[in-house]
Amino acid sequence: MSRQFPESFYWGASTAAHQVEGNNVNSDFWLMENLEGTVFKERSGEAVDHYRLYREDIALMAELGLNSYRFSVEWARIEPKEGQFDQEAIDHYRDVLAACKEFNIMPIITLHHFTSPQWLIRAGGWESMETPAKFARYCEHVMRELGDSIPYVCTINEANISIGITKIIKRHQTQNAAQVGINTGTMESMQKYFAALGQAFGVPPQEVHAFLAARSEKGLEVIFKAHTQAREAIRKVSPQTQVGITLSLYDIQSIPGGEVHAAHAMQEEFLQFLPYLEEDDFFGLQNYTRYVYGPEGYIPPAEDAEKTQMGNEFYPEGLESVIRYASMHLNKPIIVTENGIGTENDERRIAFIDRALQGVHNCIGDGIPVLGYMHWSLLDNFEWQLGYSKTFGLLAVDRSTQERKPKPSAYHYGNIANTNLL
Question: Catalytic positions, please?
Answer without folding.
Answer: 338
